[in-house]
Write the structure tokens for this entry.
Amino acid sequence: MFAELSPDDKAKYVAAKRAVNFVEDGMKLGLGTGSTAAWMVRCLAERVHKEGLRIKGVPTSSRTANLARELGLEVITLDEAGRLDITIDGTDEFDANLNLIKGGGGALLQEKIVASASDKMIVIADFGKRVTYLGQFPLPIEVLPMAKSYVARELTKLGGQPQLRDFKTDNGNLILDVHELKIIDPIEMETKINQIVGVVTNGLFAVRPANILLLATNEGVKTIKKGA
């Protein structure tokens, strides 16, 4: 199977296998959403079946929940789990301080809730996701449907160009993708956007950045720790 993968999928697979090595018997995990996270769920299921690990997973989307169940993983709610040991997820963009933009797959609200409920957040990325300043990837904003036009006008005042995505989240909300934001201070921007009435949350993970980032490169997987 590995030989048949594209170079991008090979990198995601190798990094995902490294990520699930952080998982220990008895842990409660946050399971991310997206193509990279899907590889992680597959690698996690492989470990569970081979080693008999007893783990419980809290998925960040219905897609992840369905995949996890199909692969035989035990899925529980965050209410049932309480505090989580780790969350493993991908990212759309990251900077040198491990601040992230997430939400390309539309699951940013649940991803942010699950990450905030976790003792540690482990993120998988390839080198192309690294940027000097966040904002090259359009920043997803989850908004209440009735507020989409108002929020879009407010976002233009911050220098961005919001576009409505043809998508409805698991929570029944809409997503505005904000282009051309140069985010110099991610924490300030995250806070400022969340103060707009009608915004549910945004895809900046700066108040709660990654603890560990596993960077897939041609030479293998590099481990980058927050503050290192």
In short: DSSP finds seven helices and 13 strands in the chain. Helices lie at 7-19, 35-51, 62-70, 78-81, 108-116, 148-157, 186-194. The radius of gyration is 17 Å.
